[in-house]
Amino acid sequence: MVDCGEGTQMQLRRSRIRFTKLSAVFISHLHGDHCFGLIGMISTFGLLGRTAKLDVYAPAALESMLDEQMRLFCHGLDYEVVFHVVDTTQQQVIYEDRSLTVESIPLAHRVPCCGFLFKEKPTKPHIKRDMMDFYGIPISQIDNIKGGADWVTPEGEVIPNNRLVTPAEPVRSYAYCSDTRYVPTLHERVKGVTALYHESTYGEDNMQHAEKYYHSTARQAAMVARDAQVGKLLLGHYSSRYEDENILLLEAKKVFDNSFLCDEQMIFEL
């Protein structure tokens, strides 16, 4: 989970996501709309009998506050909450498992803030089962062939590896850039990602507000997407002054056509 504002538990239920599926929470910064829902969710997990540990990755200032909240409101939890301090000034790997890595992305907001870059790890090629059967290749050789080995028949014929496998699926990546002013070098940190979420609080008509409150315009978000050559741009975090966010979408599309407005419960294919 990335950020945890008020109403998170309701949204989880609406999305029909089982609470037990959640293993890690990444908090970008300490503004209420990004973290006020965390303690309530932790408490609910305890009431539901959770036993698996929950990892929380966040700026250092949250640790003491979360410890105090848990001391007051979460007596007798049967699971462990493990806090991991994230240095918001550095781009570095903060999480890794068998299938992906998560990196922090330094951003520029009124408080220490970072985004997160999710990268799939490369997978191995897919075996062509019909070719395996045709050449009588034993199952014990599958890992070798996935690793790039050719096959030599009993007659000495060399079967090239590319005849035995199909390429692995392309690696996907997703960059989440939370609250931030426009950072001209940000595109270098998210180069070529499959999808980029970038806040677009204002339009160019409110540039003064964007600069004052360290937010971005939709056009600036599109500039990052264009310069980074991303697959698609997802816009969000709109100011309430816009009754119709399509104004922001049109502004972004003038710079980067493959832009989309985000809304609650939306699903995007990567």
Structure overview:
- It is built from ten helices and 14 strands.
- It has 270 residues and is an alpha/beta fold.
- The model has no long low-confidence stretch (mean pLDDT 96).
- It is 28% helix and 21% strand.
- The two termini are 17 Å apart.
- Helix 9 runs parallel beside helix 10.
- The strands form four sheets. The chain has a seven-stranded mixed β-sheet with strand order 4-5-6-11-12-13-14, with helices on one face.
Write the topology of this structure.
Layout: H1 8-14, E1 24-26, H2 32-35, H3 38-47, E2 54-58, H4 61-73, E3 81-85, E4 93-96, E5 100-106, E6 114-120, E7 126-127, H5 129-135, H6 142-146, E8 151-152, E9 158-159, E10 165-166, E11 173-177, H7 186-189, E12 195-199, H8 207-213, H9 218-228, E13 232-236, H10 246-253, E14 259-261
Parallel strand pairs: 1-2, 2-3, 11-12, 12-13, 13-14
Antiparallel strand pairs: 4-5, 5-6, 6-11, 7-10, 8-9
Helix pairs in contact: 9-10
Going across the biggest sheet, name each strand in turn.
Answer: 4-5-6-11-12-13-14
> What quaternary form is this?
single chain
Rg over C-alpha atoms, rounded to the nearest angstrom: 23 Å
Order of helices and strands: HEHHEHEEEEEHHEEEEHEHHEHE
Provide the helix percentage.
Answer: 25-40%
DSSP strand tally: 14
Can you give the mean pLDDT?
96
The rough form would be described as globular
